[in-house]
Amino acid sequence: MDEHLTNEGISTKYRSQFDMVNEAIKLVVSMVHSGRGARIKINSKNPAVVIPAEIRAGKAYLEDLPAPDAREIKLHIPEQKGKMTGSTTFKTNTLRDQ
What we know:
single chain
């Protein structure tokens, strides 16, 4: 697909640009989470480029992703490697009584 994509080229499929952007965001998130490749032939792997091209080609739809298992969800909390020492001072731009 060698065409140049513009908002005007795909915006006719949506009620507003707000709806178009929200749908594109959902489609990009779905693409990234599912790990799927492009559904069309395109020279980019960037989802921000692929999704508008898929919308224009009529091949964009949300993936049915399984719900994550609560036992598999792990929170990453970085360990604190040492304590903060010293003090910090802040200067202000206000004038004070002398």
